[in-house]
């Protein structure tokens, strides 16, 4: 009988880094990735046949090249399964996977697991966010990387965070600069926090490069600016916005929104490092600190696991201090871009899957349980299972929505036929 | 009903039975305190299919009661209480083997004897009604007067209409007796004083009443799919496999048995159930059981291969040792009424049984004879044992 | 050009390795919903399979997230919900 592998869910920087570290230590690894290639959203490669590469800092390219070389060097220890979607852990401890290529769900009982499923983008909803033509900035960036081409027609970017100017600069370099970038926060009014950001070792060079690209393409970057609504307008959108005290309207083809990222944790098994099958989280899925930190965090999770399995581990302290630096940068950024929450209009959709509005949410009892929010309100009962509306509801109610207990599987909708064809590695 | 105006009833359990009792008590002028260890519809009520079905009931008192209970739904729909929540729809009892066909035919005869409309459907007719039905289906009976309602929606409506405040996260520790009569419910250190107590707490009734030997938890695992139609049921009836009937009639009783039902929800989704796992009161679901349920479902209705499972979940039915619900006054402790043990029939029976329990608490006779469900029967068994 | 799949019966070209979502957007198809539904129609949104906004019906199979799924020659796709067969 062969040794049960260490399972790693997610082939982004954290998962790949953990896989390389474990395989180098001589442990067999099963690495599953939902896409057809490793790299995660940050290192999405162009589809075959697509041309130019998207502009991004050279260190990302170098880091990923180094990591893929390490994976290649210990390829014999790593089984990589792409187009395979993690479905969660069932009530009897099986880790479940949807092999999309084979059209079959398989179950496995790994020796330990590192879950590195990245982050999801936060959005602050407004009437019309559910329309075609509105996309997350991160989603648009992934598409840009895959196709090498920007979307056609006027683009507006709105929300908050460093991704907004970064994506704007990439779109400009790719040939279609956005008409404007609307930042909810007012970074220029917080020079002290900007200075702290620089002192904390923030990527100021990167920021300066993006700023220069935006200036060159004459893309206005407005602070204290928010989208208030979007309405369908022919093949495009009419977008209402408030910039300071001014109300304005703009016609665009694409509205790209983003208000930061948070760990993708809905339904993910809770870390239990002391359990018979230890589960650890790594990367943005543990703490949203970005791609550089995810590389370190994947390594850290692998070293923690090795220590737990008695294989010894050093250098954890060094990793911790570098992660702490990333944490300080993120905190300073958040401080610089901080803005007051705004209550959405009553008709604003909150749960897109089931078509439920903010008014529907308010109609529920103030002390309604998570179950009542789901069953009576139909929030989070649809296909996304609360992955998008859960954080919004938590933000609007001012407290987290407790997770279902026991944790629910499947984490993602799965074909009835594929699940009926379940195969397990158990001898039965 | 001036005589009852002063009575204060504590109802333990905000499932469909407790909510119905609370609603009808309040409507009769009683003061009601509704308590739940968690929240409304948190137990089996919120984790079940929506079958308001006579078709599946065991012959005898259950079949007769289910006919009353379904008629009660029809009346409540007509007078507005359940408007928009209860829908008439057929149940199809389907057989896939000669043995199953015989069982279905026997059950159909029992239904007809109880006064139920039963229509024999040949395979061609059934295919026209439900396109895509599996090749193995050889015989079917249609029960055209059955219906559909979701337990948590009915519960919400009952509570909303009567404006009863519910105390969430209030687990009853014990029923406090004074001078041989129920005086209230202890919640932690607090006493909720009451003139009478209704225990409608599903499996939670067992520790409160010392029914651990009589009430059995029976877990059921289910799956819900995505929408097959943008709104309205995707197929023209509720599909009930003979395996479900067999389980209900007590023919197959082994643990882990699957009694297959395919319930087309009003949203266009399918609810597919379910396992029958005795002495399991946890809410975990496992891939082997769900996969087995789905294989059965695909055999019965192959177009499900075009659907995705959105979630799996488990509900815990509360079954009594003899398979009949327990509804009636506590045989030894005055001022306590019990309404539990509805197994998988709580959605169908719940509103009617809640209304009956309300009448018992008000000192009135229920609308039908409930002797067969009386808690007294277990006393007698124990006395003879 | 590498191949074609069909969106509501209309051929859509795709490049090798491209996702269904990328090909649909390149063809100018942003609205993935039925016009008469009471729920919001489909559209590509998060790009990582989480939001389920871009799920499309597949003839003779279960729906898939268009942002995760590589395009394939001859696939017949359409808006949700569909019964999985015979949608035009």
Structural account:
- The complex is a heterotrimer of chains A (428), B (385) and C (88).
- Helices cover 32% and strands 22% of the residues of chain A.
- Chain A contains 12 helices and 22 strands.
- Chain A has helices spanning 13-24, 58-73, 137-147, 163-174, 191-199, 204-216, 291-308, 316-336, 358-362, 370-375, 389-397, 416-420; strands at 6-9, 29-32, 78-81, 84-89, 95-99, 104-108, 112-115, 119-121, 134-136, 155-160, 180-183, 221-223, 225-233, 236-243, 246-252, 254-259, 261-263, 279-281, 349-351, 356-357, 414-415, 423-424.
- In chain A, 53% of the residues are buried.
- Chain B folds into 2 domains: 2-45 and 152-213 and 323-384, FAD/NAD(P)-binding domain, CATH 3.50.50.60; 90-145 and 215-320, D-Amino Acid Oxidase, Chain A, domain 2, CATH 3.30.9.10.
- Chain B has helices at 16-27, 61-78, 98-113, 123-129, 151-162, 205-209, 242-248, 287-300, 346-361, 376-384; strands at residues 8-12, 31-35, 51-52, 87-88, 91-95, 119-121, 139-143, 147-148, 166-167, 174-178, 181-187, 190-193, 196-199, 215-225, 238-241, 257-264, 270-278, 308-320, 326-329, 336-340.
- In chain B, helix 1 packs parallel to helix 5 and helix 2 (61-78) packs across helix 9 (346-361).
- In chain C, strand 3 and strand 4 form a beta hairpin.
- Mean pLDDT of chain C is 87; it is low at 83-88.
- Classes of the chains: A alpha/beta (428), B alpha+beta (385), C mainly beta (88).
- Chains in contact: A-B, A-C, B-C.
- At the A-C interface, strand 9, helix 3 and helix 12 of A face helix 1 of C.
């Amino acid at each position: 009988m062969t040794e049960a592998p260490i399972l790693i869910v997610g082939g982004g920087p954290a998962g790949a880094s953990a896989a390389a570290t474990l395989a180098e230590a001589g442990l067999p690894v099963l690495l599953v990735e939902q896409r057809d290639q490793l790299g995660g959203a940050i290192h999405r490669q162009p589809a075959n046949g697509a041309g130019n590469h998207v502009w991004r800092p050279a260190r990302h390219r170098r880091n990923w090249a180094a990591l893929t070389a390490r994976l290649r060097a210990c390829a014999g220890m790593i089984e990589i399964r792409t187009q395979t979607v993690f479905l969660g852990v069932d009530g009897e401890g099986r880790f479940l996977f949807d092999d999309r290529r084979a059209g079959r769900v398989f179950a496995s009982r790994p020796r330990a697991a590192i879950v590195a499923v990245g982050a999801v983008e936060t959005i602050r909803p407004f009437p019309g966010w559910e329309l075609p033509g509105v996309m997350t900035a991160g989603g648009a960036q992934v598409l840009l990387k895959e196709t090498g081409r920007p979307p056609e027609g006027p683009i507006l970017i709105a929300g908050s965070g460093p991704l907004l100017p970064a994506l704007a600069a990439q779109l400009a370099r790719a040939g279609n600069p956005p008409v404007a970038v609307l930042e909810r926060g007012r970074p220029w009014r917080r020079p002290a926090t900007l200075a702290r950001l620089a002192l904390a070792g923030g990527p100021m060079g990167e920021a300066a490069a993006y700023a220069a690209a935006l200036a060159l393409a004459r893309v206005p970057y407005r602070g204290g600016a928010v989208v208030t609504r979007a309405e369908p307008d022919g093949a495009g959108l009419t977008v209402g916005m408030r910039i300071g005290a001014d109300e304005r309207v703009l016609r665009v083809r694409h509205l790209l929104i983003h208000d930061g990222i948070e760990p993708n944790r809905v339904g993910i098994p809770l870390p239990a490092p002391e359990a018979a099958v230890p589960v650890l989280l790594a990367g943005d899925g543990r703490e949203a600190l970005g791609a550089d930190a995810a590389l370190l965090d994947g390594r850290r999770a692998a070293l923690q696991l090795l220590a737990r399995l008695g294989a010894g581990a050093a250098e954890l302290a060094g990793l911790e201090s570098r992660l702490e630096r990333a944490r300080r940068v993120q905190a300073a950024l958040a401080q610089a871009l901080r803005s007051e929450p705004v209550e959405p209009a009553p008709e604003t959709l909150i749960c897109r899957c089931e078509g439920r509005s903010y008014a529907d949410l308010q109609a529920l009892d103030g002390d309604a349980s998570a179950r009542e929010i789901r069953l009576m309100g139909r929030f989070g009962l649809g296909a996304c299972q609360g992955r998008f509306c859960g954080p919004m509801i938590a933000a609007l109610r001012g407290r987290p929505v407790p997770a279902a207990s026991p944790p629910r599987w499947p984490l993602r909708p799965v074909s009835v036929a594929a699940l009926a064809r379940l195969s397990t590695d158990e001898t039965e | 009903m001036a005589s009852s105006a002063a009575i204060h009833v504590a109802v333990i359990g905000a499932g469909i039975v407790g909510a119905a009792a609370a609603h009808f008590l309040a409507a009769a002028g009683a003061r009601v305190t509704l308590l739940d260890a968690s929240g409304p519809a948190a137990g089996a009520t919120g984790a079940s299919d929506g079958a308001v079905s006579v078709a599946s009931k065991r012959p005898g008192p259950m079949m007769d009661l289910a006919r009353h209970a379904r008629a009660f739904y029809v009346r409540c729909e007509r007078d507005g209480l359940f408007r928009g929540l209860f829908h008439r729809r057929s149940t199809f009892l389907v057989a896939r083997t000669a043995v199953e066909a015989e069982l279905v035919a026997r059950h159909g005869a029992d239904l007809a004897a109880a006064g139920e409309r039963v229509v024999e459907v040949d395979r061609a007719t059934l295919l026209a009604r439900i396109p895509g039905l599996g090749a193995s289906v050889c015989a079917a009976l249609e029960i055209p007067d059955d219906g559909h309602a979701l337990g948590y929606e009915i519960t919400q409506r009952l509570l909303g209409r009567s404006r009863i405040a519910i105390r969430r996260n209030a687990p009853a520790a014990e029923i406090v007796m004074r001078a041989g009569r129920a005086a209230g419910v202890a919640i932690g250190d607090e006493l909720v004083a009451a003139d009478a107590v209704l225990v409608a707490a599903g499996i939670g009734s067992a520790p409160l009443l010392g029914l651990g030997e009589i009430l059995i938890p029976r877990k059921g695992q289910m799956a819900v799919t995505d929408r097959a139609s943008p709104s309205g049921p995707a197929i023209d009836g509720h599909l009930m496999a003979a395996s479900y009937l067999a389980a209900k009639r007590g023919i197959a009783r082994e643990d882990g048995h699957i009694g297959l039902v395919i319930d087309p929800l009003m949203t266009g989704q399918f609810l597919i159930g379910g396992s029958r796992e005795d002495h399991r009161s946890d809410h975990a679901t496992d891939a082997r059981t769900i996969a087995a349920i789905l294989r059965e479902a695909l055999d019965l209705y192959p177009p499900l291969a075009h659907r995705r499972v959105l979630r799996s979940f488990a509900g815990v039915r509360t079954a009594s040792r003899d398979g009949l619900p327990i509804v009636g006054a506590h045989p030894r402790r005055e001022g306590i009424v019990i309404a539990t043990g509805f197994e998988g029939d709580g959605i169908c029976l719940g509103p009617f049984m809640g209304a009956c329990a309300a009448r018992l608490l008000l000192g009135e006779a229920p609308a039908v004879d409930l002797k067969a469900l009386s808690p007294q029967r277990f006393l007698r068994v124990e006395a003879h044992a | 050009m590498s191949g074609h799949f069909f969106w509501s019966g209309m051929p859509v070209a795709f490049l090798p390795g491209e996702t269904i979502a990328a090909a649909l957007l390149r063809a100018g198809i942003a609205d993935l919903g039925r016009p008469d539904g009471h729920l919001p129609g489909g559209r590509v949104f998060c790009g990582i399979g989480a939001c389920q906004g871009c799920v499309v019906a597949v003839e003779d199979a279960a729906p898939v997230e268009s942002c995760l799924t590589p395009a394939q020659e001859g696939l017949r796709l359409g808006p949700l919900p569909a019964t999985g067969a015979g949608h035009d």
